[in-house]
């Protein structure tokens, strides 16, 4: 489902004389349906960079990233947008939303955008918000005024609303209490059970050991010159 082959990445510092910094070289990662692969490696090793490359936020210097058959490194912007809408989910640590949209609609939106009927979408959104302990009195309000932890849980509910065949998870259990952490781990297990291919970054080692089938040390892809 996700096939990364010989991937490399450089950053060009345009405001510092155009210095080119190689940060990744020869990265190979393969994630099958129903599998979760955890990215490990020291701070600065390139875990976030690899996720951003897969999501199409960064341009690769070389190599290939196939997500459900689409090569993200070569794809047109409209193809990337369609991939993100239908097949590739991304759960970051932080919620970014349009102001004044009620929480229930924020969570239902990914389903509506793939053509799920509004009633079904709202039922799924309600189920997820309940499971993540967002009190019902908050569902009609915009999450912009919510606490950090509430926003994070709304973000997770939104990220798991549509059953994407491929998912990227960036610290999904960070700073959650035990009960909500357990819910998120269950959501990940359920996604795997329905066949999702997942790449995740988890500093929470116990969480990583529980949901990841394999771990990949991104330091192995650090270019010689930069190591
Ligand atoms: N936009 C950028 N411009 C220049 N260099 C960058 C940029 N983003 C990341 N880097 C560099 O790429 C390398 C990998 O960074 P990255 O954020 O992917 O590491 P990480 O493994 O996710 O670290 P952490 O665990 O601390 O989040 C670092 O050396 C970093 O300085």
Give a quick precis of the structure.
This protein is an alpha/beta fold and 227 residues long. The chain has helices at 47-55, 77-86, 103-112, 118-131, 148-159, 178-193, 205-211; strands at residues 2-13, 19-31, 36-40, 62-67, 70-71, 88-91, 166-170, 197-201, 214-217. The longest helix has 16 residues, at 178-193.
Describe the structure.
- Helices cover 34% and strands 25% of the residues.
- It has 227 residues and is of the alpha/beta class.
- The protein has a single domain (2-221), classed as 3-Layer(aba) Sandwich (Rossmann fold).
- It has a five-stranded parallel β-sheet with strand order 6-7-8-3-9. Strands 2-1-4-5 form a four-stranded antiparallel β-sheet, covered by helices on one side.
- Strand 7, helix 6 and strand 8 (197-201) form a beta-alpha-beta unit.
- The two termini are 30 Å apart.
- Residues 11, 21, 23, 41, 43-49 line the site of adenosine-5'-triphosphate (ATP).
- Discrete helix count: 7
Please name the CATH topology. Answer: Rossmann fold
Task: Please provide the count of β strands.
Answer: 9
Biggest sheet, open or closed, and with what strands and sense?
Answer: 5 strands, parallel
Q: Output the strand order for the largest sheet.
A: 6-7-8-3-9
Assess the beta-strand content as a share of residues.
Answer: 15-25%
Find the structural class using helix and strand composition: alpha/beta
Name of the CATH class: Alpha Beta
Q: What is the assigned CATH homologous superfamily?
A: P-loop containing nucleotide triphosphate hydrolases
What's the alpha carbon Rg, rounded to whole Å? 18 Å
Task: Name the overall outline.
Answer: globular
The appropriate CATH architecture is 3-Layer(aba) Sandwich
| Oligomer kind | single chain
Bound molecules: adenosine-5'-triphosphate
Count of discrete domains: 1
Organism: Shimia litoralis
InterPro entries: AAA+_ATPase (IPR003593), ABC_transporter-like_ATP-bd (IPR003439), ABC_transporter-like_CS (IPR017871), CP_lyase_PhnL (IPR012701), P-loop_NTPase (IPR027417)
Family: Belongs to the ABC transporter superfamily.
Keywords: ATP-binding, Lyase, Nucleotide-binding
């Amino acid at each position: 489902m996700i096939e990364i082959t010989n991937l490399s990445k450089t950053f060009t510092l345009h405001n510092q004389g155009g210095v080119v910094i190689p940060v990744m070289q020869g990265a190979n990662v393969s994630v099958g349906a129903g599998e979760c692969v955890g990215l490990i490696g020291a701070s600065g090793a390139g875990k976030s960079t690899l996720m951003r490359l897969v999501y199409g936020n960064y341009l690769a210097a070389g190599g290939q990233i196939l997500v459900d058959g689409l090569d993200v490194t070569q794809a047109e912007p409209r193809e990337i947008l369609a991939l993100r809408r239908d097949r590739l989910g991304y759960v970051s640590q932080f919620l970014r939303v349009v102001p004044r949209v009620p929480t229930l609609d924020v969570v239902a939106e990914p389903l509506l955008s793939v053509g799920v009927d509004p009633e079904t979408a709202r039922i799924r959104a309600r189920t997820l918000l309940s499971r993540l302990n967002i009190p019902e009195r908050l569902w009609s309000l915009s999450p912009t005024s919510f606490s950090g932890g509430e926003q994070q849980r709304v973000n997770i509910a939104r990220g798991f609303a549509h059953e994407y065949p491929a998912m990227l998870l960036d610290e999904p259990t960070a700073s959650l209490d035990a009960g909500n952490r357990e819910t998120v781990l269950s959501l990940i297990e359920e996604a795997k059970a329905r066949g999702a291919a997942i790449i995740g970054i988890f500093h929470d080692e116990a969480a990583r050991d529980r949901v990841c089938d394999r771990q990949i040390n991104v330091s192995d892809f650090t270019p010689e010159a930069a190591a």
